[in-house]
Amino acid sequence: MIKQILGRLPKKPAKSGEKELAGAGTSLPSPTADARTTTDLTMSSRLVNPNSYASTVTNPGQNYAARNAGVSNGFTASAGYEALPSFRDVPASEKPTLFLRKLAMCCVQFDFTDPTKDVKEKEIKRQTLLELVDYITSATGKFPEPVVQEVIKMVSANLFRGPTPAPRENKALESFDLEEEEPVMDPAWPHLQIVYELFLRFIQSPETDAKLAKRYIDHGFIIRLLDLFDSEDPREREYLKTILHRIYGKFMVHRPFIRKAINNIFYRFIFETEKHNGIAELLEILGSIINGFALPLKEEHKLFLVRALIPLHKPKCVAMYHQQLSYCVTQFVEKDCKLADTVIRGLLKYWPITNSSKEVMFLGELEEVLEATQPAEFQRCMVPLFRQIARCLCSSHFQVAERALFLWNNDHIEGLIKQNSKVILPIIFPALERNTKGHWNQAVQSLSLNVRKIFMDHDPTLFEECRKKFEEEEAQEASVRSKREAIWKRLEEIALSKSAQ
Description:
The chain has 22 helices and no strands. By secondary structure, the protein is mainly alpha-helical.
């Protein structure tokens, strides 16, 4: 008897603060408002429907939860999942409540690994999500708190799903080429894309109040959003990139936290795992952020350059994100030319020894940095820099030597070199001479002759001094080599004579 009475009592509503929050997004053309859809989110005080905002939010999706008791990762009681009326078929006063009911309905999860399972219900959910996108796009009044809360709840339920085992996680990173591997496509993408689009438009909407939404798009939400960047599906990472950028722009209070959280991802990638699918997208976001840094640069931003961006040159898979990394680094030098010495020395610290393709990338980045470098900063690092360039000029890999010689095609860099030719020419002269006489690649020989002529025309006296010194050193080396060979020959004769006795 008592159990029956207790069973009829209403259950205690869940606290809003205990709900997980979530989100994600992408870069798509600006959505066009659907003229057939109208929105009236400001009429909550005039609602006559007993299912008010408050009652709906207290236990959103309660009807669906009751029908689907015991369901964990997928919807099984398909008989309870029915389409709700269209927004066009209900009075304007009922649309806000219907909107919340549709959001709650879309919190239900399905198993997309089996395309034959729950086909009807999946299509109902897809159509409902499309209606929600239209509704948000055409909103004409500020979204009240219950709507914000339920949008975040629905987005969280769909995007922050359980991790799926990655087919490559047990492979050594260097054993395969990620650029040639087929990307892993999420089978749930037809639904996830609409959820991402909905959330993107919700963030971009002028009807979304940042002061209100930041209660639900909080630090926990941002961390889980950043975790999704490791997705192997490039379409998802593209949405995430755009959505995070919009969040950064709209929620100023979260900006320091977002930068710190991205830093932590980089640190873990550089010093622990060297495995992450979203480094390029995160760097693309940061490139835009760095571009907007005010001058003078804060110490925090300079530390980010030294502790995160420069060490990102270390991992073997740097080719996957080097273009975005190079842009970020160059942005720092363009904003503060005094950082050129720090950046160049950082590049030299992580300069590859046995990876020729990586060397070519480093030389390309070096050219971009030098193009933004002023004479004072150039002079600070030119000695170690051109010692490395001299080694590149001598490389047996023709692309490395060729790329190093291409530096002289840049007028700004050539000007810096000419201004400091008395220091630079003695360092690289031996490499140029050996290339012109003995490099196996004809293009490298030709380019070396051109560079040699530049120095000869610029300062004939210095060039002649370097040539004489080079010939003297070559003669000394030949003499030492001859003496060494004579000693070895004498030792062989002694050994033969002793063995004959």
